[in-house]
């Protein structure tokens, strides 16, 4: 009833929201954690994590993951995507690119100088959205 169109959902997901990632855990509920992500309409959603983190270790055995992005104030909106993913090594400049998305140029550069060296075994997780769930309550009467 309050679903977003394809263009609306892709535009919303491309905005800088904190995402909530869910990864299956054997014998437990899914690990659900907030993180930064980036997305260009029509492409994959990409995130940064460390292979040795809880997320990184769970991803080694997972086949699909989910990510939800939402607003925190009315009228509420959200986009949730799920699908298969790939993992690749973190490349120079990717931490800075992500940090600038969320902090802006100057603060993003400063953050990246500290954060990138801390990602000893950093990787990029690229989620290929196959299933989309959306709501835009600004469309309510």
- CATH topology value: Pnp Oxidase, Chain A
Structural class: alpha+beta
The CATH class label is Mainly Beta
Order of helices and strands: HEEEEHEEHHEE
CATH architecture label name: Roll
Helix content range: 25-40%
Unreliably modeled segments = none
Number-wise, the strands total 8
Distance between the termini: 11 Å
Structure, described:
The chain has 141 residues and is α+β, with helices and mostly antiparallel strands. It has one domain: Pnp Oxidase, Chain A. The chain has helices spanning 6-14, 54-59, 94-103, 105-118, and strands spanning 19-25, 28-35, 38-39, 45-50, 64-70, 77-89, 122-127, 131-136.
Describe the structure concisely.
The chain is α+β, with helices and mostly antiparallel strands. The chain has 4 helices and 8 strands.
């Amino acid at each position: 009833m309050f679903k977003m169109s394809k263009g609306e959902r892709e535009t919303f997901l491309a905005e800088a929201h904190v995402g909530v990632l869910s990864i299956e855990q054997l014998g437990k509920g899914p690990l659900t954690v907030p993180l930064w992500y980036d997305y260009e309409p029509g492409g994959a959603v990409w995130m940064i994590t460390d292979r040795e983190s809880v997320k990184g270790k769970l991803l080694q055995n997972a086949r699909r993951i989910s990510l939800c992005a939402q607003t925190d104030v009315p009228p509420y909106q959200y986009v949730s995507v799920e699908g298969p993913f790939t993992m690749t090594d973190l490349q120079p400049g990717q931490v800075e690119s992500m940090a600038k998305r969320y902090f802006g140029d100057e603060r993003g550069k400063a953050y990246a100088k500290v954060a990138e060296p801390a990602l000893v075994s950093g990787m990029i997780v690229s989620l290929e959205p196959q299933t989309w769930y959306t709501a835009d309550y600004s469309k309510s009467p």
